[in-house]
Structures are given as structure tokens and as C-alpha cells.
Specification:
The chain contains seven helices and 15 strands. It is α/β, with parallel strands linked by helices.
């Protein structure tokens, strides 16, 4: 039990840069308080002391603003940041190293008994205000964006955003995500900046623009090949360089970047 508490405290330091010392964490982190109360309430629930487990859970909700049903199964190093408004249902199953932010609901969509709440695999991160509803799995290391509403299974390493939740990123091979010098040169020419686009923090608008740039680069390559072939057939053919992009077009791309 003591080792589990130490792990829970360490997980706060690992995932919250504002944490300064152990005493501060123990006295001022409601997410940790709710988790410690739940560990005890869950033991009472498993020993068929249902009323006592629910009562302790209710007291914890009153104290922390976080509602965790004593029947929920929670793994190691679970972290709730801020915590106010978090709701975790009775049949929810949470793996190791999972992180929830404030306002998250792990709820059900049915009044039938049995499994009706989600299962979060190891390493899942659920953003503030997100709702994960139903008896399905969210795969390992998946991320659910803030305020998303997820009602279907999420594969491992995916990122889900929006209402209803849609997958905007899966782990892909390097071949499927080109990063060649020609695209970078075109981005510089257009004045386009992907502003932090990465596998960890995807941006759907930036990814769409990059897809257009890849297509434009492919068209340019084919045009150059066609011009070269025509010149071989007709020596009088003069290849004309493509006109450079004017300042108005560059300003347009900058406006897109800043929206």
C-alpha cells in the first residue's frame, strides 16, 4: 500500500511541473486525494461493504469535486490534473500511467447492468472536458482532445478530437509521412510555418496544407518531366520558368497560419 502511494505521489511530479515538494502535493492536490480515497473505497467494495464504499466515495466527491465510483478499477500511477468535475463510472477500467484533466467523464450510454463504461489502456491521456461514453476500449497511448465526445473504440497511439470524436492521427511509417527537402523549400517559398506540427501535437489545418504542398510538389515534378520530354522532341521548345509567388499570396498563407 505504501509503495502504491509513493508511486502516485511520484506520478504527480512526473506530470505536473508546478509540483514543488511532497508536502505540497499531499496537502493541495485534490486529484491525489480522490485517488487515495478511491483505493480504500475500492477495497471496501471488493469486500462487499457496498454502502461503506459508496459513502466514502461520496465524502471524497464532497471534498475534492471528483466522483469515482468505488467499483471502478484503476491501475498504477494514475494522475488527475486539477480534477474538478471528473466523473468515473462503476464499470470503468483504467490502466497504468493514465492521465485525466478536469471535467472528464468516463460514462455509460445504457441503463443495463454489466459492462457499460469505457476501458482506458496504459498511457492514455484525456483532455479537459472530454466525454468517453460506452463499453469500448481506448488503446494504449491514445490521446483524446479537450471537449471531444468519444463513443467508439479508439486504436492504440491514435489522437481523437471533435464531436463526435474522429481520429486525426495514427502511428504511421516514415514512408507515409514525407519530410523531404523539396517540401521544406516550397514551405519556405510560400511563407508557411507548420507551427509545432508533430506526432505528439497534431494540427489538422497544418496537415491539410502540407498535403496540398506535397501535391503541388508532385505536379511541379511532373511538369518538369513533361517539359524535358517535349524539349527532346522539339529542340526549339524553350522552357519557361514558373513565375514566383507574389507578396499577396504569401500574406494569404500567413493569415491561414494565424487563424
Amino acid at each position: 500500500m505504501l509503495e502504491s502511494v509513493k508511486e502516485d505521489i511520484k506520478s504527480v511530479f512526473d506530470r505536473d511541473p508546478a509540483a514543488r515538494n511532497t508536502f505540497e502535493v499531499l496537502t493541495n492536490y485534490p486529484g491525489l486525494h480522490a485517488l487515495l480515497f478511491h483505493r480504500l473505497a475500492h477495497k471496501l467494495w471488493n469486500n462487499k461493504l457496498f454502502w461503506l464504499g459508496r459513502t466514502l466515495s461520496t465524502f471524497s466527491r464532497w471534498l475534492t469535486g471528483i466522483e469515482i465510483h468505488p467499483g471502478a478499477q484503476i491501475g498504477r500511477r494514475f494522475f488527475i490534473d486539477h480534477g474538478m468535475g471528473v466523473v468515473i463510472g462503476e464499470t470503468a477500467i483504467i490502466g497504468d500511467d493514465v492521465t485525466l484533466y478536469q471535467g472528464v467523464t468516463l460514462g455509460g450510454t445504457s441503463w443495463n447492468k454489466g459492462k457499460r463504461h469505457p476501458t482506458l489502456k496504459n498511457g492514455v491521456v484525456v483532455g479537459a472536458g472530454a466525454k468517453v461514453l460506452g463499453p469500448f476500449e481506448v488503446g494504449e497511448n491514445a490521446k483524446v482532445g479537450s471537449n471531444a465526445v468519444v463513443t467508439k473504440e479508439v486504436p492504440a497511439d491514435a489522437t481523437v478530437v471533435g464531436i463526435p470524436g474522429r481520429i486525426i492521427l495514427k502511428t504511421v511509417t516514415k514512408k507515409a509521412e514525407p519530410t523531404d527537402e523539396s517540401r521544406q523549400k516550397m514551405e519556405d517559398n510560400l511563407g508557411f510555418d507548420a507551427y509545432g506540427l508533430s506526432n505528439e501535437m497534431p494540427d489538422p489545418v497544418a496537415r491539410s496544407i502540407r498535403s496540398m504542398l506535397d501535391h503541388m510538389n508532385l505536379v511541379d515534378e511532373r511538369m518538369n518531366s513533361m517539359c524535358g520530354a517535349i524539349k527532346k522532341l522539339d529542340g526549339s521548345f524553350n522552357k519557361v520558368d514558373v513565375q514566383p509567388i507574389n507578396e499577396d499570396e504569401i500574406d494569404c498563407f500567413k493569415q491561414i497560419k494565424n487563424t
